[in-house]
Structure formats: structure tokens, C-alpha cells
Amino acid sequence: MQNIISSWFVQGMIKATHDMWLKGWDERNGGNVSLRLLDSDVEPYLSEFNTKPHHIALTQDVSALAGQYFIVTGSGKFFRNIILDPADNLAVVRVDEQGKGYYIEWGLINGGVATSELAAHLQSHIVRMQKTDGKDRVVMHCHATNLIALTYVLPLDSKVFTHELWQMSTECLVVFPEGIGILPWLVPGKDEIGYATAEKMKSHSLVLWAFHGVFGSGATLDEAFGLIDTAEKSAEILVKVMAMGGRKQGITKDEFKLLAERFDVIPMDGVL
């Protein structure tokens, strides 16, 4: 008999969250991750689900996700502890039939609820499902150090941020050709930030919350992690370049066009 701890999705969450903590992106209980599961993913483990799952109400309508399963990090849970006790720090949840709440089907064995940013996650999942024809299944939020640092010195403008990040690493245009969305500071865990993030996710798989952190979406945990990792590496280079007096040369507009042609991507309009 299979055990849910050994499932690909629990093991995947353990690896992703531990890698994020090792990167220094998720201090204490900072950050959260959600992965949309298919019925076929959870079917082998239904016998391990709670017989009377606890129901948690939501303040937003997520009826577009009615009946969908997600594995998510728990509210107030430390990323560094997930690898030690996944059943206490993670949860498999199911959105109820009306889209007005969710059931805790597995996990959080010592009590608790899903991440406080669940509102932002679910609204973004709805948008990315529609945008990618169901391909995107992961939403990942963390406090990537250098990306946050740049929000204190660069104009909070998507085109400016995107251009600067593209300049620092050749692969950035290829990995996120649609650029990075930027939001002003908003109170975390509230409906407003969830709706605002989802709106940006209509045109960007990567959204930066000023003075707070970054949201990334992808088809897999590796893809979402890699997206944030690529942007954060570019931000780190930019921080160092700025500390050395600023950029003296870089990739030209014509060279960016050749790069886009080579990898068959369409750059965000107005950046080049």
C-alpha cells in the first residue's frame, strides 16, 4: 500500500520548500507554495484522507476551482521544518462545491489552516489555468532577497524592471519573455492583494510585490522555482553592477531581437 508521504507531490513540495529555504528566500514562516493536483494524483491516497475534514470558509469566490485539490504550505509554518515533518506543515485541501471554502483532507496534523496567502494563490491559479489551458499548476511565493532590494531603488515600473533584469542575464528574455509584473506595497493576506496579483498574472508568470516578495507560476514545481531563481540571479548581478558604479555596456536592442528570434519568443511590448 502506498503512503502519501512518499507520493511525488509531497516529496516535490519537500524538495522545493527546502531548496527555497536554502536559498535564503523563506525565513521563518515567510513564503508559501501551492500545487494543483489532479484526481488521478490523489486517488491512490484517499484512504489516508480525514473522514470528517475540517472546513474553512473563504472570503472570495473561487467557484472556478470547485472540487479541485491542492497541496499547500500551512499558515505560520516554517519552511525549514517541512522536510522534518511534512504532515504537520503541509496540507492537501479540496475547494468545496460552492467555491466558498475548502476542506483540509490531509496534513496539518497538529492543527492549523492553509497559508494566509491562499486567496492570492487561488485567484492566480484561476487566471493561469485559463491563460495556459490548464498547463500551469504551481504558484510559488517567496522573499527573494535581491529582487526585493531592487524595489527600493528602481522605479516601480514593469518595463523598467524587465529591461534591467533582461540586461543582466542572457537567459532572462528566454525564460520570462512576457516580463515581470510589479505591484505597489499592499497588505499581505488580504483579498485586495490576491485580486491585484491575479490581474498581473493575466500577462506575467512572474509578479513582484514591492518591498515584500515575488510570485511565480509554472507547470511544475521545478519550473516555478527555476523562473524565480533565474530572475533572482539576474537581480543579484544587477545589485552588484549598481554597486560598482552602474552598467557601462550590455546587450543591444538588435542583439535582443536576434535572441528572441533564435528561441522563438515574443518580448514584452515596449521593453526593447
From TrEMBL:
**Which positions bind Zn(2+)?**
H141, H143, H212
- State the GO CC annotations: cytosol
Q: What is its EC number?
A: 4.1.2.19
Gene Ontology molecular-function annotations: metal ion binding; rhamnulose-1-phosphate aldolase activity
For whether the record's keyword set contains Repeat, the answer is: no
User: One biological-process term from Gene Ontology?
Assistant: rhamnose catabolic process
Q: Which residues form the Class II aldolase/adducin N-terminal domain?
A: 11-239
Task: Output the Pfam families linked to this UniProt entry.
Answer: Aldolase_II
Cofactor stoichiometry and binding remark? Binds 1 zinc ion per subunit.
Q: Where in the cell is it found?
A: Cytoplasm
- Keyword annotations of the record: Cytoplasm, Lyase, Metal-binding, Rhamnose metabolism, Zinc
- Active-site residues are E117
Q: Which reaction does this chain catalyze?
A: L-rhamnulose 1-phosphate = (S)-lactaldehyde + dihydroxyacetone phosphate
Instruction: List membrane-spanning regions.
Output: none
As cofactor, the record names: Zn(2+)
Superkingdom per UniProt = Bacteria
Q: In which pathway does it act?
A: Carbohydrate degradation; L-rhamnose degradation; glycerone phosphate from L-rhamnose: step 3/3
Job of this protein = Catalyzes the reversible cleavage of L-rhamnulose-1-phosphate to dihydroxyacetone phosphate (DHAP) and L-lactaldehyde.
UniProt lists the family membership as follows: Belongs to the aldolase class II family. RhaD subfamily.
HAMAP family attached here? RhaD
What is the name listed in the Swiss-Prot or TrEMBL entry for this protein? Rhamnulose-1-phosphate aldolase
Mind giving the lineage of the organism this protein is from?
Answer: Bacteria, Pseudomonadati, Pseudomonadota, Gammaproteobacteria, Pasteurellales
Gene name of the record: rhaD
